[in-house]
Amino acid sequence: MTILSKTVLAAIGALAITRENAEKWIDELIRRGELDNSQRAEAVKEAFARAEARARETVEKVGRTVAEKAKAAAEQGLGGPFVKADELAELRRTVEKLAAEVRKLKPQSD
Fold it and tell me: Which of 5, 26, 29, 85 has the highest CB neighbour number within 10 Å of its CB?
């Protein structure tokens, strides 16, 4: 696995927050009186939204960095692909699988 694919997967790992863990954290806030029980569903939904936004920002940042490095390498005559076609295809499949898992983790609308 390439450094790029590991980096992208690590960024997407920010979405690995499970529904169970999110609910556990929110239940603890409710127990401590820092959050009202009526706000529970919305709090879980917001936790996923924040995690998704952070992961998206990280993936975009990685993409910009890779593009900058590729441009710099090309300007120096280094050329050549940074990621082999089969590695890119594997990365795309993995991202698609992770996106499907994220959709499953998102709280259902009330």
Answer: 26
